[in-house]
Specification:
Blueprint (H helix, E strand, L loop, with lengths): L1 E5 L28 H10 L8 E5 L3 H10 L6 E5 L5 H15 L4 E6 L3 E2 L2 H16 L3 E6 L10 E9 L2 E8 L4 H10 L2 E11 H11 L1 H12 L2 E3 L2 E3 L2 H5 L6 H6 L5 E6 L3 E2 L4 H7 L9 E3 L2 E4 L5 E4 L4 E4 L4 E5 L4 E5 L6 H10 L10 E4 L2 E9 L2 E8 L7 E3 L3 E9 L2 E5 L2 E5 L4 E4 L5 E4 L6 E9 L8 E4 L6
Parallel strand pairs: 1-2, 1-4, 2-3, 3-11, 6-12, 14-16, 15-17, 16-18
Antiparallel strand pairs: 4-9, 5-13, 6-9, 7-8, 7-9, 8-12, 10-11, 18-19, 20-21, 21-22, 22-29, 23-30, 24-27, 24-29, 25-26, 25-28
Helix pairs in contact: 3-6, 3-7, 6-7
Protein backbone atom coordinates (compact mmCIF):
# COMPACT_ATOMS: atom_id res chain seq x y z
CA UNK A 1 0.00 0.00 0.00
CA UNK A 2 1.37 3.38 -1.04
CA UNK A 3 0.16 6.37 0.99
CA UNK A 4 -0.50 9.56 -0.99
CA UNK A 5 -0.48 12.81 0.99
CA UNK A 6 -2.24 15.68 -0.75
CA UNK A 7 -0.52 18.94 0.18
CA UNK A 8 -2.20 21.38 -2.17
CA UNK A 9 -4.69 23.08 0.14
CA UNK A 10 -4.54 26.85 0.64
CA UNK A 11 -6.20 27.07 4.08
CA UNK A 12 -7.70 30.50 3.40
CA UNK A 13 -10.19 30.27 6.27
CA UNK A 14 -7.32 30.11 8.77
CA UNK A 15 -5.85 33.43 7.69
CA UNK A 16 -3.81 35.26 8.97
CA UNK A 17 -1.86 32.27 10.30
CA UNK A 18 -2.35 30.23 7.10
CA UNK A 19 -1.32 31.95 3.87
CA UNK A 20 -0.84 30.92 0.26
CA UNK A 21 2.94 30.52 0.55
CA UNK A 22 2.73 28.87 3.99
CA UNK A 23 -0.70 27.20 4.32
CA UNK A 24 -2.10 25.33 7.29
CA UNK A 25 -0.69 21.88 6.49
CA UNK A 26 2.80 23.22 7.26
CA UNK A 27 1.80 24.88 10.54
CA UNK A 28 1.67 23.49 14.06
CA UNK A 29 -1.94 24.11 15.05
CA UNK A 30 -2.61 21.19 17.42
CA UNK A 31 -0.36 18.72 19.24
CA UNK A 32 3.10 20.09 18.40
CA UNK A 33 3.99 18.80 14.93
CA UNK A 34 2.72 20.41 11.75
CA UNK A 35 -0.38 18.84 10.22
CA UNK A 36 1.73 17.38 7.39
CA UNK A 37 4.08 15.77 9.90
CA UNK A 38 1.15 14.36 11.87
CA UNK A 39 -0.38 12.92 8.69
CA UNK A 40 2.91 11.36 7.58
CA UNK A 41 3.56 9.79 11.00
CA UNK A 42 -0.04 8.57 11.23
CA UNK A 43 0.07 6.88 7.84
CA UNK A 44 3.53 5.42 8.48
CA UNK A 45 1.94 3.31 11.21
CA UNK A 46 -0.49 1.57 8.86
CA UNK A 47 0.60 -2.08 8.43
CA UNK A 48 2.33 -2.90 5.12
CA UNK A 49 2.57 0.73 4.05
CA UNK A 50 5.36 1.93 1.79
CA UNK A 51 7.03 5.35 2.15
CA UNK A 52 4.51 8.10 1.32
CA UNK A 53 4.15 10.03 -1.91
CA UNK A 54 3.47 13.74 -1.51
CA UNK A 55 1.76 15.90 -4.12
CA UNK A 56 2.41 19.57 -3.44
CA UNK A 57 2.50 22.99 -5.01
CA UNK A 58 5.93 23.70 -6.47
CA UNK A 59 6.26 26.79 -4.23
CA UNK A 60 6.10 24.55 -1.15
CA UNK A 61 8.62 21.92 -2.22
CA UNK A 62 11.28 22.78 0.37
CA UNK A 63 8.70 23.05 3.15
CA UNK A 64 7.59 19.49 2.36
CA UNK A 65 11.14 18.15 2.22
CA UNK A 66 12.28 19.87 5.42
CA UNK A 67 9.24 18.88 7.45
CA UNK A 68 9.37 15.23 6.41
CA UNK A 69 13.08 15.15 7.20
CA UNK A 70 12.42 16.69 10.61
CA UNK A 71 9.82 13.96 11.27
CA UNK A 72 12.33 11.29 10.13
CA UNK A 73 10.04 10.28 7.24
CA UNK A 74 11.77 9.33 3.98
CA UNK A 75 9.27 9.93 1.15
CA UNK A 76 8.87 7.53 -1.74
CA UNK A 77 8.47 10.48 -4.09
CA UNK A 78 7.67 14.19 -3.96
CA UNK A 79 5.55 15.26 -6.93
CA UNK A 80 5.21 18.95 -7.75
CA UNK A 81 2.12 20.53 -9.30
CA UNK A 82 2.89 23.62 -11.38
CA UNK A 83 -0.71 24.78 -10.84
CA UNK A 84 -3.57 23.93 -8.49
CA UNK A 85 -5.97 21.54 -10.23
CA UNK A 86 -7.77 19.95 -7.26
CA UNK A 87 -7.52 16.34 -6.11
CA UNK A 88 -8.51 14.22 -9.14
CA UNK A 89 -5.46 15.21 -11.26
CA UNK A 90 -3.13 15.11 -8.25
CA UNK A 91 -4.11 11.53 -7.41
CA UNK A 92 -3.87 10.51 -11.07
CA UNK A 93 -0.24 11.64 -11.15
CA UNK A 94 0.48 9.74 -7.93
CA UNK A 95 -1.19 6.65 -9.38
CA UNK A 96 1.05 6.82 -12.46
CA UNK A 97 4.13 6.98 -10.26
CA UNK A 98 2.87 4.10 -8.10
CA UNK A 99 2.18 1.84 -11.08
CA UNK A 100 5.78 2.22 -12.20
CA UNK A 101 6.81 0.85 -8.80
CA UNK A 102 4.18 -1.92 -8.58
CA UNK A 103 1.40 -2.76 -11.09
CA UNK A 104 -0.73 -4.00 -8.16
CA UNK A 105 -0.23 -0.89 -6.05
CA UNK A 106 -3.04 0.18 -3.71
CA UNK A 107 -3.21 3.88 -2.80
CA UNK A 108 -4.28 5.31 0.55
CA UNK A 109 -5.11 8.91 -0.35
CA UNK A 110 -5.35 11.44 2.48
CA UNK A 111 -5.30 15.21 2.86
CA UNK A 112 -2.27 16.44 4.76
CA UNK A 113 -4.16 19.11 6.69
CA UNK A 114 -6.63 17.10 8.79
CA UNK A 115 -6.59 16.11 12.45
CA UNK A 116 -7.05 12.52 13.67
CA UNK A 117 -7.06 12.06 17.44
CA UNK A 118 -7.55 8.27 17.57
CA UNK A 119 -4.83 6.88 15.31
CA UNK A 120 -5.53 3.22 16.17
CA UNK A 121 -9.18 3.63 15.08
CA UNK A 122 -7.93 5.13 11.81
CA UNK A 123 -5.61 2.15 11.27
CA UNK A 124 -8.45 -0.28 12.02
CA UNK A 125 -10.68 1.42 9.44
CA UNK A 126 -7.96 1.22 6.79
CA UNK A 127 -7.51 -2.48 7.54
CA UNK A 128 -11.26 -3.06 7.10
CA UNK A 129 -11.19 -1.45 3.69
CA UNK A 130 -7.99 -3.01 2.35
CA UNK A 131 -9.33 -6.31 0.96
CA UNK A 132 -12.22 -4.49 -0.71
CA UNK A 133 -9.83 -2.03 -2.35
CA UNK A 134 -7.75 -4.92 -3.66
CA UNK A 135 -10.87 -6.58 -5.06
CA UNK A 136 -11.86 -3.53 -7.10
CA UNK A 137 -13.89 -1.27 -4.82
CA UNK A 138 -13.13 2.42 -4.52
CA UNK A 139 -13.28 2.82 -0.76
CA UNK A 140 -13.90 6.06 1.08
CA UNK A 141 -14.07 6.69 4.81
CA UNK A 142 -17.15 8.27 6.36
CA UNK A 143 -16.89 9.97 9.74
CA UNK A 144 -19.66 8.98 12.15
CA UNK A 145 -21.28 12.36 12.91
CA UNK A 146 -21.83 13.61 16.44
CA UNK A 147 -23.44 16.95 15.53
CA UNK A 148 -25.58 18.43 12.71
CA UNK A 149 -22.55 19.89 10.93
CA UNK A 150 -23.25 22.15 7.95
CA UNK A 151 -19.60 22.64 6.93
CA UNK A 152 -19.05 19.11 5.60
CA UNK A 153 -20.37 17.13 2.67
CA UNK A 154 -22.10 13.85 3.60
CA UNK A 155 -22.07 10.24 2.38
CA UNK A 156 -25.34 8.30 2.48
CA UNK A 157 -24.58 4.62 3.01
CA UNK A 158 -26.49 1.79 1.37
CA UNK A 159 -26.48 -2.00 1.65
CA UNK A 160 -23.84 -3.81 3.67
CA UNK A 161 -20.99 -5.29 1.64
CA UNK A 162 -19.24 -6.85 4.63
CA UNK A 163 -18.90 -6.26 8.36
CA UNK A 164 -18.02 -2.56 8.71
CA UNK A 165 -18.16 -1.85 4.97
CA UNK A 166 -21.19 -0.53 3.09
CA UNK A 167 -22.07 0.46 -0.45
CA UNK A 168 -22.26 4.19 -1.12
CA UNK A 169 -25.80 5.20 -1.93
CA UNK A 170 -25.03 8.86 -2.65
CA UNK A 171 -22.69 11.75 -2.00
CA UNK A 172 -24.58 14.72 -0.58
CA UNK A 173 -23.60 18.40 -0.72
CA UNK A 174 -23.16 20.49 2.44
CA UNK A 175 -26.65 20.76 3.97
CA UNK A 176 -28.41 23.58 5.76
CA UNK A 177 -28.90 23.29 9.53
CA UNK A 178 -32.36 21.71 9.32
CA UNK A 179 -31.24 19.10 6.80
CA UNK A 180 -28.10 18.31 8.79
CA UNK A 181 -30.24 17.74 11.90
CA UNK A 182 -32.45 15.35 9.92
CA UNK A 183 -29.40 13.43 8.69
CA UNK A 184 -28.21 13.01 12.27
CA UNK A 185 -31.64 11.86 13.46
CA UNK A 186 -32.19 9.38 10.61
CA UNK A 187 -28.73 7.80 10.72
CA UNK A 188 -27.00 6.26 7.74
CA UNK A 189 -25.21 9.52 6.90
CA UNK A 190 -21.49 10.15 7.44
CA UNK A 191 -19.25 13.17 7.02
CA UNK A 192 -17.12 12.96 3.90
CA UNK A 193 -13.52 12.78 5.14
CA UNK A 194 -11.84 13.05 1.75
CA UNK A 195 -9.79 9.92 2.52
CA UNK A 196 -9.78 7.13 -0.08
CA UNK A 197 -8.38 3.65 -0.61
CA UNK A 198 -8.24 2.00 -4.04
CA UNK A 199 -5.99 0.23 -6.50
CA UNK A 200 -4.01 2.71 -8.57
CA UNK A 201 -4.97 1.11 -11.88
CA UNK A 202 -8.62 0.87 -10.85
CA UNK A 203 -8.71 4.61 -10.19
CA UNK A 204 -7.17 5.42 -13.57
CA UNK A 205 -9.64 3.07 -15.28
CA UNK A 206 -12.58 4.88 -13.66
CA UNK A 207 -11.05 8.24 -14.52
CA UNK A 208 -10.80 7.09 -18.14
CA UNK A 209 -14.48 6.13 -18.09
CA UNK A 210 -15.85 9.31 -16.52
CA UNK A 211 -13.26 12.07 -17.08
CA UNK A 212 -11.00 11.08 -19.98
CA UNK A 213 -10.04 14.73 -20.43
CA UNK A 214 -8.39 14.77 -17.01
CA UNK A 215 -6.62 11.48 -17.64
CA UNK A 216 -5.33 12.70 -21.00
CA UNK A 217 -3.93 15.91 -19.55
CA UNK A 218 -2.26 14.19 -16.58
CA UNK A 219 -0.82 11.49 -18.85
CA UNK A 220 0.81 14.21 -20.93
CA UNK A 221 2.04 16.00 -17.79
CA UNK A 222 3.51 12.75 -16.48
CA UNK A 223 5.17 11.96 -19.80
CA UNK A 224 6.81 15.40 -19.77
CA UNK A 225 7.93 15.28 -16.14
CA UNK A 226 11.39 16.35 -15.08
CA UNK A 227 13.47 15.47 -12.05
CA UNK A 228 14.60 18.45 -9.97
CA UNK A 229 16.86 17.51 -7.06
CA UNK A 230 14.66 15.17 -4.95
CA UNK A 231 11.44 16.28 -6.66
CA UNK A 232 9.48 15.26 -9.75
CA UNK A 233 8.03 18.22 -11.63
CA UNK A 234 4.96 17.57 -13.76
CA UNK A 235 5.05 19.24 -17.17
CA UNK A 236 3.80 22.79 -16.68
CA UNK A 237 1.93 23.33 -19.95
CA UNK A 238 0.19 19.95 -19.94
CA UNK A 239 -0.84 20.16 -16.30
CA UNK A 240 -2.06 23.74 -16.62
CA UNK A 241 -4.37 22.55 -19.43
CA UNK A 242 -5.96 19.95 -17.12
CA UNK A 243 -9.47 20.67 -15.80
CA UNK A 244 -9.63 21.31 -12.06
CA UNK A 245 -11.84 18.70 -10.38
CA UNK A 246 -12.10 16.80 -7.13
CA UNK A 247 -12.04 13.00 -6.83
CA UNK A 248 -15.63 13.14 -5.60
CA UNK A 249 -16.99 14.90 -8.67
CA UNK A 250 -14.70 13.24 -11.22
CA UNK A 251 -15.01 9.61 -10.09
CA UNK A 252 -16.65 8.77 -6.78
CA UNK A 253 -20.10 10.19 -7.61
CA UNK A 254 -20.20 8.16 -10.85
CA UNK A 255 -18.56 4.82 -10.11
CA UNK A 256 -20.77 1.82 -9.37
CA UNK A 257 -18.17 0.37 -7.03
CA UNK A 258 -17.93 2.99 -4.29
CA UNK A 259 -17.82 1.64 -0.74
CA UNK A 260 -17.72 3.46 2.59
CA UNK A 261 -16.06 2.42 5.83
CA UNK A 262 -17.65 4.22 8.82
CA UNK A 263 -14.95 5.62 11.09
CA UNK A 264 -14.94 7.22 14.54
CA UNK A 265 -11.39 8.44 15.01
CA UNK A 266 -11.63 11.96 16.38
CA UNK A 267 -11.38 13.45 12.90
CA UNK A 268 -11.59 17.12 11.95
CA UNK A 269 -10.66 18.96 8.78
CA UNK A 270 -9.63 22.00 10.88
CA UNK A 271 -11.42 24.11 8.32
CA UNK A 272 -12.00 27.23 10.40
CA UNK A 273 -11.06 29.04 13.59
CA UNK A 274 -14.35 27.81 15.04
CA UNK A 275 -13.22 24.23 14.48
CA UNK A 276 -9.92 24.94 16.21
CA UNK A 277 -11.88 26.28 19.18
CA UNK A 278 -13.87 23.03 19.26
CA UNK A 279 -10.79 20.77 19.22
CA UNK A 280 -8.54 22.96 21.38
CA UNK A 281 -7.84 22.72 25.10
CA UNK A 282 -10.73 24.77 26.44
CA UNK A 283 -11.07 26.10 29.94
CA UNK A 284 -13.98 24.40 31.72
CA UNK A 285 -14.77 27.66 33.48
CA UNK A 286 -14.71 30.05 30.51
CA UNK A 287 -14.82 27.79 27.41
CA UNK A 288 -11.86 29.82 26.08
CA UNK A 289 -8.89 28.54 24.08
CA UNK A 290 -5.95 30.84 24.84
CA UNK A 291 -2.64 30.31 23.00
CA UNK A 292 0.49 32.40 23.42
CA UNK A 293 0.81 35.66 25.34
CA UNK A 294 -2.89 36.25 26.09
CA UNK A 295 -4.65 37.90 29.04
CA UNK A 296 -8.45 37.65 29.08
CA UNK A 297 -10.91 39.15 31.56
CA UNK A 298 -14.66 38.50 31.57
CA UNK A 299 -14.31 36.71 28.24
CA UNK A 300 -16.06 33.46 27.34
CA UNK A 301 -16.33 31.00 24.46
CA UNK A 302 -13.46 32.61 22.57
CA UNK A 303 -10.39 31.49 20.63
CA UNK A 304 -7.50 33.93 21.16
CA UNK A 305 -4.05 33.22 19.73
CA UNK A 306 -0.92 35.35 19.95
CA UNK A 307 2.10 34.60 17.79
CA UNK A 308 4.22 37.27 19.45
CA UNK A 309 2.72 40.37 21.05
CA UNK A 310 0.56 40.52 24.15
CA UNK A 311 -3.15 40.22 23.30
CA UNK A 312 -5.54 41.48 25.98
CA UNK A 313 -9.31 40.89 25.80
CA UNK A 314 -12.10 42.25 28.00
CA UNK A 315 -15.81 41.48 27.95
CA UNK A 316 -15.91 39.33 24.81
CA UNK A 317 -18.28 36.48 23.99
CA UNK A 318 -17.71 33.87 21.26
CA UNK A 319 -14.93 35.83 19.57
CA UNK A 320 -11.87 34.87 17.55
CA UNK A 321 -8.67 36.93 17.78
CA UNK A 322 -5.52 35.80 15.96
CA UNK A 323 -2.38 37.96 16.13
CA UNK A 324 0.62 37.61 13.79
CA UNK A 325 3.57 39.88 13.11
CA UNK A 326 1.80 41.83 10.36
CA UNK A 327 -1.94 41.21 10.74
CA UNK A 328 -4.62 40.74 13.41
CA UNK A 329 -7.95 38.99 12.81
CA UNK A 330 -10.94 39.84 15.00
CA UNK A 331 -14.16 37.96 14.21
CA UNK A 332 -17.38 36.62 15.60
CA UNK A 333 -16.91 32.88 16.10
CA UNK A 334 -20.09 32.22 14.11
CA UNK A 335 -18.75 34.19 11.12
CA UNK A 336 -15.29 32.67 10.74
CA UNK A 337 -16.26 30.88 7.51
CA UNK A 338 -16.26 34.36 5.94
CA UNK A 339 -12.55 34.93 6.59
CA UNK A 340 -11.90 33.82 3.00
CA UNK A 341 -13.75 36.96 1.89
CA UNK A 342 -11.09 39.03 3.64
CA UNK A 343 -8.39 37.05 1.82
CA UNK A 344 -10.14 37.65 -1.51
CA UNK A 345 -10.17 41.40 -0.84
CA UNK A 346 -6.48 41.43 0.07
CA UNK A 347 -5.64 39.52 -3.09
CA UNK A 348 -7.72 41.89 -5.22
CA UNK A 349 -5.82 44.82 -3.71
CA UNK A 350 -2.47 43.12 -4.36
CA UNK A 351 -1.50 43.06 -0.68
CA UNK A 352 1.33 40.75 0.41
CA UNK A 353 -0.49 39.82 3.63
CA UNK A 354 -2.74 37.50 1.59
CA UNK A 355 0.13 35.29 0.49
CA UNK A 356 3.24 35.63 2.66
CA UNK A 357 4.16 36.20 6.30
CA UNK A 358 6.63 38.79 7.46
CA UNK A 359 8.89 35.80 8.14
CA UNK A 360 9.50 34.02 4.83
CA UNK A 361 10.95 30.51 4.75
CA UNK A 362 13.64 29.66 2.23
CA UNK A 363 15.43 26.33 1.61
CA UNK A 364 18.52 27.74 3.30
CA UNK A 365 16.69 29.25 6.30
CA UNK A 366 14.44 32.31 6.55
CA UNK A 367 14.26 36.08 6.47
CA UNK A 368 11.99 38.48 8.33
CA UNK A 369 11.20 42.09 7.56
CA UNK A 370 11.94 44.43 10.47
CA UNK A 371 11.53 47.91 9.01
CA UNK A 372 11.06 49.57 5.63
CA UNK A 373 10.61 53.03 4.13
CA UNK A 374 11.44 54.80 0.90
CA UNK A 375 14.84 53.61 -0.42
CA UNK A 376 15.69 51.30 2.49
CA UNK A 377 14.53 48.19 4.33
CA UNK A 378 15.93 46.08 7.15
CA UNK A 379 15.73 42.28 7.39
CA UNK A 380 16.77 39.67 9.89
CA UNK A 381 18.28 36.70 8.04
CA UNK A 382 18.81 33.21 9.46
CA UNK A 383 20.96 30.71 7.56
CA UNK A 384 20.89 27.09 8.73
CA UNK A 385 24.21 25.27 9.40
CA UNK A 386 25.87 24.08 6.22
CA UNK A 387 23.50 26.03 3.94
CA UNK A 388 24.17 28.84 1.50
CA UNK A 389 22.30 31.43 -0.51
CA UNK A 390 22.59 31.57 -4.28
CA UNK A 391 25.45 33.38 -6.03
CA UNK A 392 23.55 36.49 -7.09
CA UNK A 393 23.59 40.21 -7.82
CA UNK A 394 21.11 43.08 -7.77
CA UNK A 395 20.58 45.87 -10.30
CA UNK A 396 18.92 48.36 -7.96
CA UNK A 397 20.13 47.83 -4.41
CA UNK A 398 23.23 47.59 -2.24
CA UNK A 399 23.37 45.55 0.97
CA UNK A 400 25.02 45.93 4.37
CA UNK A 401 25.41 42.78 6.50
CA UNK A 402 26.02 42.73 10.27
CA UNK A 403 26.56 39.33 11.92
CA UNK A 404 24.84 39.00 15.29
CA UNK A 405 25.24 35.25 15.83
CA UNK A 406 27.42 32.53 14.32
CA UNK A 407 29.94 32.71 11.49
CA UNK A 408 29.41 33.81 7.89
CA UNK A 409 31.46 33.02 4.83
CA UNK A 410 31.04 35.81 2.30
CA UNK A 411 31.84 35.83 -1.41
CA UNK A 412 31.94 39.38 -2.78
CA UNK A 413 33.21 39.82 -6.32
CA UNK A 414 36.60 38.09 -6.39
CA UNK A 415 36.94 38.06 -2.58
CA UNK A 416 36.09 35.34 -0.04
CA UNK A 417 36.30 35.95 3.72
CA UNK A 418 34.81 35.07 7.11
CA UNK A 419 32.76 37.31 9.38
CA UNK A 420 32.06 36.57 13.04
CA UNK A 421 29.74 38.18 15.59
CA UNK A 422 29.72 42.00 15.59
CA UNK A 423 31.55 42.19 12.26
CA UNK A 424 30.03 43.61 9.09
CA UNK A 425 30.53 44.09 5.35
CA UNK A 426 29.11 46.03 2.41
CA UNK A 427 28.00 44.61 -0.96
CA UNK A 428 27.83 47.34 -3.63
CA UNK A 429 25.04 47.46 -6.22
CA UNK A 430 25.81 45.23 -9.21
CA UNK A 431 28.38 43.07 -7.37
CA UNK A 432 28.07 39.26 -7.44
CA UNK A 433 27.88 37.88 -3.91
CA UNK A 434 27.01 34.82 -1.84
CA UNK A 435 26.46 34.09 1.85
CA UNK A 436 27.14 30.73 3.55
CA UNK A 437 26.95 29.34 7.08
CA UNK A 438 30.04 27.10 7.53
CA UNK A 439 29.35 26.60 11.24
CA UNK A 440 27.27 24.22 13.35
CA UNK A 441 24.88 26.79 14.83
CA UNK A 442 22.40 28.99 12.92
CA UNK A 443 23.88 32.13 11.41
CA UNK A 444 21.88 35.27 12.19
CA UNK A 445 22.56 38.64 10.62
CA UNK A 446 20.92 41.98 10.02
CA UNK A 447 20.71 43.07 6.39
CA UNK A 448 20.17 46.72 5.49
CA UNK A 449 19.15 47.22 1.86
CA UNK A 450 19.40 50.64 0.19
CA UNK A 451 18.45 51.59 -3.34
CA UNK A 452 15.79 52.73 -5.77
CA UNK A 453 13.97 49.35 -5.91
CA UNK A 454 13.93 46.75 -3.12
CA UNK A 455 11.62 44.03 -4.46
CA UNK A 456 12.46 40.33 -4.16
CA UNK A 457 12.38 40.00 -7.95
CA UNK A 458 15.56 42.08 -8.28
CA UNK A 459 17.73 38.98 -8.04
CA UNK A 460 19.95 37.68 -10.83
CA UNK A 461 21.10 34.16 -9.89
CA UNK A 462 24.32 32.74 -11.34
CA UNK A 463 24.50 29.54 -9.24
CA UNK A 464 22.02 27.97 -6.83
CA UNK A 465 22.24 24.75 -4.80
CA UNK A 466 18.43 24.52 -4.82
CA UNK A 467 17.94 24.81 -8.60
CA UNK A 468 15.82 27.95 -8.36
CA UNK A 469 15.52 30.22 -11.37
Amino acid sequence: MIPVLLCGGSGERLWPLSRARHPKQYISLVDGNSLLQQAALRIAGVPQSAPPVTVANAHHRFLVAEQLQAADIAPGAMLLEPAARNTAPAVAAAAMWALEQDPEAVLLVAPSDHLVRDVSAFHDAVSRGMDHARSGYLVTFGIIPDAPETGYGYIRSGAAIADGVQAVDAFVEKPDAQTAARYLAEGGYHWNSGIFLFAAQRYLDELAAYRPDILEAVTAAWAGRQEDLDFIRLDEAAFAACPAESIDYAVMEHTRDAAVVPMDCGWSDLGSWGTLHAVGERSEETDNVLIGDVVAEDTQGSYIRSEGRLVAAVGLRDAVIVETADAVLVADRERVQDVKRIVARLEAEGRDEATVHRRVNRPWGAYEGIASAERFQVKRITVNPGQQLSLQMHHHRAEHWIVVKGTARVWRGEESFLLTEDQSTYVPLGTAHRLENPGVIPLELIEVQTGSYLGEDDIVRFEDAYARE
